[in-house]
Design brief:
Layout: H1 3-38, H2 45-56, H3 65-83, E1 87-91, H4 97-106, E2 111-115, H5 118-126, E3 132-139, E4 143-144, H6 146-154, E5 158-166, E6 170-173, E7 183-186, H7 188-193, H8 195-202, E8 210-212, H9 216-225, E9 229-233, H10 235-240, E10 245-247, E11 257-264, E12 275-281, H11 291-301, E13 306-313, E14 322-329, H12 335-343, E15 348-355
Helix pairs in contact: 1-3, 2-3
Bound molecules: prephenic acid.
Prephenic acid (PRE) is lined by residues 28, 31, 43-44, 47-48, 51, 76, 79-80, 83.
């Protein structure tokens, strides 16, 4: 079949897809009206995951699970925007990995605001300027993001979901060919994380071939403005500045992943088959031996699995005291967890129950 006839077939299929999408959106509109009437939450990551799981378990032809997920996350983004336009604040700059994480969950159509600090993301959600906030919480090579832990303890927001994305770097440039590139912009950390690729491909170059700049997003911007320049940056930064990707996934460490939290003023509770609950614990009798063990024992007695425990200094005292950031398996809607949390209300601050993606 020739190109025109194949394109004709695609046009007919696209017409049907569009009709079905319109039909879907009419139903979403009704759901939106119901939710607004009942004042209930718009965003249901659990329902979105169920839809993707259900579709991916069917015969999917040439569509991989990732492809189905990417298509549907965009559809959900359009749906949520129709139900209620929502502003999403993320730790910037635009093109940061946090931006990439936010877009991977809320879709390209949502309204975003890039903020300069973790504190400002918390503030924008607390004051209601943004409906959701996206902040990094952990990198599997570097550990926890202390600032995020501290603000979770100090403010009144809930974790409603986590996002895990691989830290992938690419070389993006407007040039068609590597031989036309005479400098690469990036941030020092990114250069360090891609040493293997850079030495294989550019080992012979002069040192001024690599130009350090504040952020990988700025690197992409710079490379979009100058001829013969490339950027070592994230996918989203390349996309924002319209830079085609010449080499993808060039980082040395394939298992480098970052975890992010989606924050909200409402706890958005809903049970799924694999949940996690995060709490902040300030023990009252922490000067007596065994105070922490006695709390952990309560979880053990109820067969509640402990997933993570980190300690952070208590900043509101001049003593050298700590609070604990703890992840346990399960949902606060499980009576065993609810009972423990209720019984120790004065010591335990509930930070959220959400789907465990780790
Ligand atoms: C829908 C949209 C947003 C939610 O996050 C989950 C699903 C969808 O497009 O399927 C519909 C909807 O609002 C819902 O089922 O609650």
């Amino acid at each position: 079949m020739d190109l025109n006839s194949l394109r004709g077939k695609i046009d007919t299929i696209d017409d049907s897809i569009l009709e079905l999408l319109i039909e879907r959106m009419n139903i979403v509109d009704e759901i939106g009206a119901l939710k607004r009437n009942q004042n209930s939450v718009i965003y249901h990551p659990d329902r979105e995951k169920d839809i993707i799981d259900r579709l991916a378990s069917k015969y999917t032809g040439k569509l991989t699970r990732n492809a189905i997920e990417a298509i549907y996350l965009e559809i959900f983004g359009v749906s949520r925007n129709l139900e209620l336009p929502e502003l999403i604040a993320f730790l910037g700059p635009e093109g940061s990995f946090t931006h990439q994480a936010a877009e991977s969950r809320f879709g390209a159509i949502a309204e975003y605001i890039s903020l300069p600090s973790i504190k400002s993301v918390f503030e924008s959600v607390e004051t209601g300027r943004a409906k959701y906030g996206v902040v990094p919480i952990e990198n599997n090579q570097e550990g926890m993001v202390k600032e995020t832990m501290d603000y979770l303890q100090a403010t009144h927001l809930y974790i409603i979901s986590e996002i895990i994305i691989p830290v992938n770097f690419c070389i993006a440039t407007k040039e068609n060919n590597l031989s036309q590139v005479n400098r690469i912009y990036s941030k020092d950390i990114a250069f360090n994380q891609c040493k293997g690729f850079l030495s294989d491909y550019f080992g012979q170059k002069e040192s001024d071939f690599f130009v350090e700049i504040d952020s990988t997003s700025k690197a992409a911007k710079q490379a979009s403005l100058e001829p013969n320049a490339a950027a070592l940056c994230s996918h989203i930064a390349a996309k924002i500045y319209n830079l085609p990707i010449l080499f993808d996934n060039i980082q040395d460490n394939e298992s480098n992943q970052t975890r992010f939290y989606i924050l909200s003023k409402n706890s958005n509770l809903k049970k799924t088959p694999k949940d996690k609950t995060t709490i902040a614990v300030k023990l009252r009798n922490d000067d007596k031996p065994g105070a922490l063990v006695s709390l952990l024992k309560k979880f053990e007695e109820k067969h509640i699995n402990l997933l993570k425990i980190e300690s952070r200094p208590q900043k509101d005292t001049n003593e050298f005291k700590f609070w604990f950031f703890i992840d346990i398996e399960g949902n606060v809607l499980d009576s065993s967890i609810e009972t423990i949390l209720k019984a120790q209300e004065e010591e335990i601050k509930f930070l959220g129950s959400y789907m465990n993606l780790c």
